[in-house]
Amino acid sequence: xxxxLRFRSIWISDVHLGTSGCQAEYLLDFLxxxxxxxxxxxxxxxxxxxxxxxxxxxxxxxxxxxxxxxKARKGTQVTFIPGNHDEAARQFIGLMFGEIxxxxxxIHTAANGKRYLVLHGDQxxxxxxxxxxxAIVGDRAYGLTLKLNHWFNRARARxxxxxxxxxxxxxxxVKKAVNFVTDFEEAVAAEAKNRGLDGVICGHIxxxxxxxxxxxxxxxxxxxxxxxTALVELANGELRIITWQKLYGEQAEQLAALLPSPxxxxxxxxxxx
Length: 273
Ligand SMILES: [Mn+2]
What we know:
The protein has 273 residues and is of the alpha/beta class. The chain has one domain (5-135, 173-258): 4-Layer Sandwich (Purple Acid Phosphatase, chain A, domain 2). Helices cover 33% and strands 21% of the residues. The strands form two sheets. A seven-stranded mixed beta sheet has the order 4-5-3-2-1-11-12. A five-stranded mixed beta sheet has the order 6-7-8-10-9, with helices on one face. A hairpin with a 5-residue loop joins strand 11 and strand 12. The chain starts with a strand and ends in a 15-residue tail after the last helix. 32% of the residues are buried. It binds manganese (II) ion. Manganese (II) ion binds next to loops. Manganese (II) ion binds at residues 43-44, 83-85, 120, 122, 204.
């Protein structure tokens, strides 16, 4: 009963249901232990691209969808903003799917009056030079790469070929990917600024972030494949990134300690402040 966390709004994206990488169990745990007035699904919720290639669907993926539908039925205002991986849903923009509103982008007004543009973000891939943000994973693989490089060049030497630095090559790639992230963030923030808004909330690049860029607040809610993050709005309009890499039971105290108590009080305690 008293173990739900209450927020004014929650943003999640890049869930990629329909892929083995989707951390549906963690998302389900998150959805079970949180409540909100506004729930925004900021794109790439169902990975239609992956499903077309290879059908992958687990019970937990159904459960996530059921949970969201149930929240919508129970009064949470749910908005789904399709991303590039679930672009098939873009033909339904402006329509309702049950109680879920499908939109291309929305403007969210926070409790403190601040206005945020909410969109998935793939629209800015074209603006940002054609870099492959996926190369970011190269960063993780760097150590492995060094080892590979060693064996690779031993093989090359045996074949009478010169040294070629695989790690150097990948490092260059990663640097380009990092540039991409910065360029993306700046492009999205610039759009919010052009529209005279206080900030922007997006997903797409799987990198949770909250920082001021040229006078507007850039927020990215991250993903549920790797980082397991959501963006939340507290009752006073403040935004926070929540990381859910442990199940609720394992981190209940840490979560409670993270937020000021009157705002972060378990639901149903009847504090009408
Ligand atoms: Mn995307």
